[in-house]
Amino acid sequence: LGEHVTTIEDAANARETIIQLVQQIHQNGVNANVSVKPTQLGLQLGPEIILENLHQILTAAEKYDTRIRIDMEDSGVTDTTLALYRSLRDDAQFGHRVGIVLQAYLYRTEADIEALIQEGAWVRLCKGAYKEPHDIAFANKVDTDANFLHLAQQMLSERARLQGMYPCFATHDEALIQAIIQFARHNQIDMDAFEFQMLYGIRR
Asked: pTM for this one?
């Protein structure tokens, strides 16, 4: 997916491609937004580079009335990515245009979700696809699945909704999808209050 660029030029090329994508989404009237990988935009090249690239992307998002979500990568950049997200979210110009992704297989995610609920964040929850050590992440799928559902229920809680959280659940797992739907119905949560997101091409 183009992560971990090693030159300023590569980061700039990624930025321009994303800006073109934002423009094309607008011109074609597609109900969509764009997620970006921080290390593709220069996260590891220096804070001024990643911020400049994201500012340009968010300027395009403002122009074309869409939103940008900062994707989460391996645990080595989790804190940096969250700090980057919060710095942009607190920017009066861009704050309403930016979201973040969290990974259910990390032990720390429950605390991160709690903080983001308080902040009324726009969050995608995914399981997590990077190989992480067992001291920071669940090793077994059954444990990750259980934590995903637990976190989803927190994100759909009345407290979270009152704070303005709009959760997105990124999973192809039919059992999890049905469990979340059942939870929403049982608690009379409007189906417009959240969404599921799936990778195109994984399944129909």
From this structure: 0.94
Q: Answer yes or no: 135 catalytic.
A: no
Catalytic residue among 71, 97, 112, 161: 71
- Average pLDDT across the chain, whole number: 95
Name the one residue in this structure whose structure tokens are 């659940």: 169
How far CA 184 is from CA of 152, 189, 196, in Å, comes to 10, 5, 13
Helices (H), 39-166: 47-63, 78-89, 109-118, 141-155, 158-162
Instruction: Read off the pLDDT band of 58 (50, 70, 90).
Output: very high
Residue tagged active-site, from 69, 124, 145, 161? 124
- Which residues are within 8 A (CB) of 98 and not within 5 positions of it... i.e. 6 or more apart? 58, 67, 68, 69, 70, 85, 88, 89, 122
Radius of gyration over alpha carbons of the chain, in Å? 17
For residues 188 and 162, give the distance between their C-alpha atoms in angstroms, rounded to a whole number: 14
pLDDT at 2: 80
Active site residue 97: no
- Comparing CA positions, the residue from 47, 17, 46, 49 lying closest to residue 34 is 17
Mean pLDDT of 109-120: 97
What local confidence, expressed as pLDDT, does residue 12 receive? 97
Residue type, 64: Y
